[in-house]
Amino acid sequence: MPRKPVSKKGSTQKIMDVLINRENGWLKVNESERKRIFSFCDHYRNFLSDVKTERQANRRGIDLAEKNGFKNLNYFIDQKKRLSPGDKVYVTISDKTLILVAIGKNSLESGMRIIGGHTDSPRLDLKPRPLYEDGEMGLLDTHYYGGIKKYQWVTIPLALHGVVSKKNGDQISISIGENSSDPVFNITDLLPHLGKDQAGKKLNEGISGEGLNVLFASIPQKNKEAGERIKLNAMELLYQTYGIVEDDLVSAELELVPAGPARDSGIDRSMILGYGQDDRVSVYTGLQALLHQKKIPAATSVCILTDKEEIGSVGSTGMYSFLFENVMAEIINLTTRDYSDLILRRCLKNSKMLSADVNALHDPNYPEVSSPNNNMAKLNHGLILTKYVGARGKSGSNDAHAEYLAELRKIFDDANVIWQTGEIGKVDQGGGGTIAFMMARYEMDVVDCGIGLLSMHAPWEISGKLDIYMAYKGYKAFYDS
Q1: What is the mean pLDDT of residues 58-73?
Q2: Topology of domain 19-121+275-480, CATH
């Protein structure tokens, strides 16, 4: 049936009023909100400085959750207690993935509101037998984790974080390099005077993966009869400090990350420079949005802080596993009298999700890779709705439905959230992936929604403070919808 023509009276002005406004977000906020932005980001910067690994993110998430009334789901399972609206629970999987659930008034069968970000970031992992001696130096052999530009990791100060699990069941936590009194570690590079051959290589070949060996020690053990005396002296120091021997490193998870705190960036302090903002900025804003709920939500609210996204979401702590289904099955079993797989399937299908992950920003130093015609997100222009990611023909993308995007537009606009759209670079140039398509397989509505970063995947990434706050504000509005 033909649509009724729209009256032309006043239509030009109406169209002008709703044209997409690409104005910088700082010009849209009043002084009161400006203060809230800076205050919120002070707390975020401290979080970013303290949380350098997925295990640390998991522990900090549990601490914050328990302070805000969340209980371990195992308490309800062990006590055979039912879950009711207003109850708040969390589940941790292998100390790496954390799921928080605030039970709402509506039945779980009618769906949930889910925000999911990831706690892992690109880094250097120690190999199972990492310590060796060469050239009168003690070195650590590493294997890089996630998509990095290898040359960015040489000559910068590095900190060592992680755990060592011993055969007797003890677990030793290690953190070296964050305090001003701690030593730091480093990967050496060639001096320019000897770098002629290196300089002639392609950028991605100048530093090899097997060349990312960390300088760890240089003093030999005094026993002249011993072999590998520098390695032996280093192991003696580890034993004296942590009670670990070389074989214990086989059952360890030790990560090298940039040393030092996150910092305010820019003369106007409008940005934050820090490690791991992909994707701990989403972790923090999503977590805070859930913790700051003031009343029992209509739909059950869920925050997923998952591991392994940077390497494909594989493994038992990644979203490609059945971990989310397993958790929701337990929760449904405690909220209904007659559990059935059909209730679980309907719960997942009727849910709505924001895949909270970061996007690229237009960088004036590299304009040739930006998606043209205002399709590239900009710094401090707000939270980004990313309809699709993928690469080359949207391959591997979720590609959110128009109806869902319209729903989110209304939610954000009603809550005065400053938001924009964005893509990961121009067609046939960029591309990427998130956990969105893994959740969309349940038939739920999912869209990627996070902030943009400059220097993404570099040891130090840049975020805009207004964008960070708008992510929190947008996520909170989504939970409340």
Answers
A1: 97
A2: Aminopeptidase (3.40.630)
Q: Could you tell me which CATH number the domain at 123-258 has?
A: 2.30.250.10
Q: Is 159 exposed, middle or buried (0-12, 13-18, 19+ CB in 10 A)?
A: buried
Which pLDDT belongs to residue 5?
61
* Higher-pLDDT residue of 83, 389: 83
Burial annotation 63-87 (CB, 10 A radius, 16+ → b, else e): ebbeebebeebeebeeeeeebeeeb
The number of residues making up the chain comes to 481
Identify the pLDDT of residue 77: 95
Rounded Cα distance between 385 and 20, Å, is 14
Peptide bond into 363 cis (omega under 30): no
What would the mean pLDDT of 376-403 be, rounded to a whole number? 91
Model pLDDT, residue 429: 85
Assess contact for 385 and 408: CB atoms under 8 A: yes
Question: Do the beta carbons of residue 91 and residue 305 sit within 8 Å?
Answer: no
Q: Which has the minimum average pLDDT: 355-359, 369-373, 379-383, 448-452?
A: 369-373
Task: Give the amino acid at 466.
Answer: L
Write the single-letter amino acid at 249: L
Structure-token match 């060349």, residue found:
211
Domain parsing of the chain, residue ranges? 19-121+275-480, 123-258
Q: What is the rounded (10 degree) CA torsion for 273, 274, 280, 282? A: 0
Give the CA count within 13 Å in the CB-facing half-sphere of 476.
Answer: 18
Task: Judge whether residue 6 has pLDDT over 70.
Answer: no
Q: Which tens digit of pLDDT belongs to each residue from 395-454?
A: 888 899 999 999 999 999 999 999 999 999 889 887 788 999 999 999 999 999 999 999
Residue in the block written with tokens 């005065």: 416
Q: Are 96 and 54 in contact (CB under 8 A)?
A: yes
